Amino acid sequence: MSAATKGAAALAHARADNGPPVVLVMGPTASGKTDLAIALVEALAARIPCDIVSVDSALVYRGMDIGTAKPSPTLLARYPHCLVDICDPAEAYSAARFCAEARAAIDDIRARGRLPLLVGGTMLYFRALLHGLSPLPQADAALRARVRAQAEALGPVGLHARLAEVDPVAAARIHPHDPQRVQRALEVYLASGRPMTALWQTDGIGLGLPTLKLVRSPRERAVLHQRIEARFDAMLAAGFLDEVRALMDRGDLRPDLPSMRCVGYRQAWAYLAGNSDAAELRQRAVAATRQLAKRQYTWLRSEGGCHWLWDDDAPLQSALALVEQSLERGP
C-alpha cells in the first residue's frame, strides 16, 4: 500500500469513528511551535488536510504583530490560522470566549474530514479547552470598583498581602506587581466566599475528543533563553517600539488592559512612558519572557500524555509518526 493510500485509509478510519483526532502543538514561547505546525501541514497535505487553530491570547489582537511574533501576512495567507486578528486591543478576550470559538472551529474542521491542529503557548486556554472551565463567578462592576479602591489605598504589595490572607495558594502563584490577576482573585473570593484555587478544583465540561499532545521544546533551557533574547532583539530591529507607540497614540488604550499587559508590550509601554531606559526595557522584557516560559514548562510537565519533541530528535519526523499512529488507532 502506498503512503498516500495508507494515509487516505487512516483518514477514512478516523472519519468513521466520529472524525480525526485533535492534534495539539504546545510548548514554551520561542520554541518553534509555529514552524513545526506549518511543516506538519505541508508534510501531510497530500494525505491528510490540516487546518490550524491558534491557541494564543496575544495573537487574537489586531495591530499587535511584531511583539507577538505573529506569522507574517504572507504566511497567514498561505496557511490560515483560526482565532488570529479577531478582536481589537481595547477588548478583553477571555478563556470562555476562546473555548467557545475554538470548539466551533474544531467541530467545523472535523466535520469536513480535516485534521485540527491547535498551536500555541497559552496554557490557560489549553487547560480550559481540555479540562473545562471552572465555575468562577461573573465579573461584577460594583465589586470590581471596590477592589480597585482597595488597590489604590493599599498599593500593589498591600493588596497582594490581602490576597495572601484569603487565598495563599493564589498569592504564591501571582506576582505582587500583576494587579489584574491579584484583583481578579480577590473579586472571586469576595463574590463567592471561596478562594479561587478551591473553585479551580471543580472543572467544567472538557473537550471530550481524542487528542494527540505534542510538545515542542529545546532539550536545554539555556538554548531557549538564547532564543528569547535573540527574538526580542529582532523585534526591536523590526520596529516593535514604533508598533507600541502607534497603539499608545490611539488614545483609547491603557497599560492595564489585557492586550497591553502582554509580555513585551507592558515593558515597552513603560519605556515609552519614560519609566525605564533602553537597557532596562530589554532586561525586563527578556526576564518577563523567561518567567512566562517557566510557567509554561510547569504546566506542560503536569499535563499527562504529552510527547516531547526535542531539537536533537528529528521533531518533524517524530511528530509525523505520532500523527499517523493516532489516525491508525482512531478515537
Describe the overall structure.
The structure is a single chain. The protein has 331 residues and is α/β, with parallel strands linked by helices. The protein has 2 domains: 3-133 and 203-329, 3-Layer(aba) Sandwich (Rossmann fold); 141-200, Histone, subunit A (Orthogonal Bundle), CATH 1.10.20.140. It is 56% helix and 9% strand. The chain has helices at 3-16, 33-44, 73-78, 95-111, 123-131, 141-166, 168-173, 179-192, 196-200, 221-237, 240-249, 265-272, 278-302, 315-329, and strands spanning 22-26, 50-55, 81-82, 115-120, 211-217, 306-310. Strands 3-2-4-1-5-6 form a 6-stranded parallel beta sheet, with helices on both faces. The longest helix has 26 residues, at 141-166. It is globular. The protein starts with a helix and ends with a helix. 35% of the residues are buried.
Number of domains: 2
Q: What is the ordering of alpha helices and beta strands? A: HEHEHEHEHHHHHEHHHHEH
Number of helices: 14
User: CATH superfamily membership of the largest domain, which one?
Assistant: P-loop containing nucleotide triphosphate hydrolases
Structural class per helix/strand content? alpha/beta
Main β-sheet: number of strands, strand sense, barrel status? 6 strands, parallel
Classify the fold: give the CATH topology of the largest domain: Rossmann fold
CATH architecture of the largest domain: 3-Layer(aba) Sandwich
Task: Quote the beta fraction.
Answer: 5-15%
Number of E-type strands? 6
CATH class term of the largest domain: Alpha Beta
Strand order of the largest sheet: 3-2-4-1-5-6
- Give the low-confidence spans: 1-17
Q: Span from first to last CA?
A: 23 Å
Quick check: average pLDDT? 89
What's the helical proportion of residues?
A: 55-70%
CA-based shape:
globular
Please tell me how large the radius of gyration is. Answer: 21 Å
